[in-house]
Structures are given as C-alpha cells and as structure tokens.
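2024-03-11 09:14:02 DEBUG pipeline.ingest accepted 1 chain
2024-03-11 09:14:02 DEBUG pipeline.ingest length=412
2024-03-11 09:14:03 DEBUG pipeline.predict start
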Amino acid sequence: MSATLKEIKHNNTNIPVIFEKNNSLPIFNIQLVFQNSGYINDKKDIGITNLSAKVLNEGTKKDGAINYARELENNAISISTSTGFETFVIEISCLKSEYKIALKYLNKLLKDPNTTQTTLDKIKLLEISKLQQKENDFDYIASKNLKKLQYKNTPLEYTSKGEIKHIKKISLKKVQQHLEKTLNLDNLIIVVGGDIEFKNIKNNIEDTLTLIQPQGKTSFEKINVSNKIEEKIEIKDTEQSYIYFSSPFNINYNSKDSYKAKVASFILGGSGFGSRLMEEIRVKNGLAYSAYGNITNNKSHTHFTGYLQTKLSNTQKAKEMVSKIVNQFVKKGVTKNELQAAKNFLLGSEPLRSETFAQRLNRAFHLYYRGLPFDYPQHELEKINNLTLSDLNSFIKEHNEIKQLSFSIVTK
C-alpha cells in the first residue's frame, strides 16, 4: 500500500497527515514535522534551534535524561528530536504493541521537557567540544568558509550548530521561548505509518495535539546565493588541499524544469565515476582521488556546489580545471552518450528509492512538502525518459549563472 494524504481536525486547526499502512512488520513510526521551524529561524540566536532539539532529547525534568531513556529502552521505544534547515522533527519508533505507551511518553516530554540550567550547560559543553574537535577537520573548515562567502548575512551563513561564541551566549530562557514558538500546531505535518489503522491514530493522538498550541502558520522567503565571485584561502598544517566551490543556480523547487536540473546535476558531478567532474579531474588529469558536484534545489535555497581534495602542488591547476569544466558544460552542453547513461541510471535505480517502508514515508512527506502529488516520481521518470538532447542543452545554456563560482580552499 502506498502513502495517502489524510487530515485530522483538532479544534479549529486542520492538520495534514501522510499515512501508510504496512502490515508486513508489527511496527509503528510517527514523525511530528514542524515546517518553517528549522534553524532558518535562528536569527540572532545562532545555534538555538539545534540546542532546543538537544534539550528534547534529554528526557523530562521529573525523570531526568537517564531514567527517561531507561524507561523508553525497557519498552523498546525510541523518541528523538532533530532539526533541519527548514523543519523541526520529533520522531517515535516502536513496536505496534507499544505505540500507545510511546505516545504517553511523548506527552510526558511535551508537558515537562528537561529545560534546566544543568541540562543546558551539559549540552552546550558537548556542542562546544564537538566544534573544537572540528578545528582540524579541513573538509568542515572549507565548507564552513564557503557558506560565509556565498550566504553572508543570511540564515545559511552558519551551520545548525553555529560557532562557539554563539553557543556560549544562548540562555535557558531563550531556549524555553524558542521551544514554545517552534512547537506550533499550525505548522505541523504528521507523517505516520505501520501496522495500524488510521482511525486508531486519529483517536490516540488527540492528547498529544492538545499539548501543542496553535500560533498561526509561518513562512519564509527564499534565500539567494551571492552573485559575487569570491575566494577564501585558509592556511593549515595539511598534507593536501581541500577545495570547495559553489555558484548560483536560479530555479524554483517546484519548477516544471526541475527534472532537467536533476539530469544536468547527475551528468556534471553527481554520478561519481562517469560524471564530467570525475572524468576530467581524476581520470584524465589525475588531479584528485574524487570530485563531486550537485545542484541543490530546496524550498529555501538553490545552488550548485561541490568539492575535491588534491595534492598541494596541484591546488591552482585543480581549481582552474573546475572552472573550465563548468564553463564548457554551459557552452557545449552534454553529449548524447552522457544523456543516455544518465537516463539508464535514473530510470533503472528508481525502484531502490522506495524499497523500504521508511523510504516510502520519507518520499511521501517530501512530495507533499513541495506541493507535488504522490505519483509525481512516475511522471518525472516519463519526462526524463522523453528528454531530448537539444532540450537539456538549451536548459543548461539558460543557466549561465552556474559559472559564477566562488572557492573556499584549505591548503598549506
């Protein structure tokens, strides 16, 4: 059975529910997805959404982190909170027989989150420690510096954790206020499935929904990548150079041409061996062990980005090669053989993308989130199969902005 779109009305709020019944295993999974609620909303308190999610993973004030976790473990229940850039997610996984108990533990958590100074101090110490450990992670440094070039003065300038200076400034009161604002019934999408009937979920989730207050649906504006061509080089004691690059790619997440971007991205750098970047940089010129690049197309932002590592002596040559490959890609487009290979892979690998129950639920959510019907992947495959070489190359030529590459390099 495939996913279906349902609805639960709680008081005056209509909550969309993505539901899939799966009786192949006696399992239960539910995700409370708060849209427009990820770290895009950190604003001046950079890192606060990440800290808020970590607090919800520390159990309740009454039980404490250890006792709460032990009770969940005794019932084979997992309750975890995570944040993305656009969403804030609370997820429960358990056996079908334990789902009512799991919802009760979730309710305990929502009523009495472990928002104490001791808990926050512990989390802040752990997060600061993790960031300190990354001071010698040169991939992380190159990626972080690239964000600052391309997304300066936007919510994407920093990672979800922020920096040490940001974490130190966040107070308990701000975390409490942020959690209250984030758990907004009007932003809620429920993704649920397993060996269970929808009517049972509808009845049993009512107590949980009562604990989440409606605050009005929120939204965000699309974030644009910088059009400036910039470069940042950071010197470290490293044995090789880490080269990260990015450029604008002007397309909307719901564009009718998004399937063309998918094919172009696959050919340029997303397919590993056989991609233009890998073939030119590694196979033909021996400048790197690997080289990747892809077009990211989200609601909040779109760009082309990629990375490679190379010998210190090849740094400039590798950087120039990336620019040359992208320029030639726009100028000459792709070949007939490249397009056919991309079609073969994308069409042939499609069944693997919905092989598991978790994959199907995840896909259904993302389709709904993007305003697409659940059968869109089949229509997309038809479009890819019918895509002509001239149509794809015309599309690529229209996106001249991809050549405006900025580079972040860590070298010696």
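2024-03-11 09:14:41 DEBUG pipeline.report The mean pLDDT is 95.
2024-03-11 09:14:41 DEBUG pipeline.predict end
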